[in-house]
Design a protein that fits this description.
By secondary structure, this protein is mainly alpha-helical. It has six helices and no strands. 83% of the residues lie in helices and 0% in strands.
């Protein structure tokens, strides 16, 4: 759902930066992010619909997280938002892959923090 919002936001507003190289990097990073975040959302939906495939879903989410982490924005604002969102994704993946009572109890807070990081990331991709 959040990835769909990113897609819609980017489709309507595009990605912008100031210097030409930052602008090109921003467009590339934001464009690639849309695909990665959309795939993450689809994988999560699939995992919720079919819990028996949780292991495969976790592996796919780890791969997608690595793809997201590999993006290299040059714009400082986007780079900071990218790092923050990547960190939130990593914490959620760690909690899901290695569940324990404390981690699961904190999951709603992690999700809320991730939504905030996603909003910051969308803002960094939106002119």
């Amino acid at each position: 759902m959040a990835a769909t919002f990113v897609l819609a936001t980017l489709a309507l507003g595009g990605c912008a930066g100031t210097p030409l190289s930052d602008s090109l990097s921003t467009v590339q990073v934001c464009g690639a992010s849309v695909g990665i975040l959309t795939s993450m959302e689809e994988t999560l939906r699939s995992a919720l619909a079919n819990p028996m495939e949780a292991g495969a879903s976790a592996e796919r989410l780890t791969e997608l997280s690595a793809e997201f982490e590999a993006l290299s924005p040059t714009d400082e604002t986007l780079a900071a938002a990218h790092a923050a969102l990547g960190s939130q994704i990593d914490v959620i993946l760690e909690t899901v892959e290695n569940p324990n009572a404390a981690g699961l109890a904190g999951l709603p807070t992690l999700i809320a923090e991730s939504q905030t990081a996603l909003q910051d990331y969308i803002q960094a991709c939106t002119p």
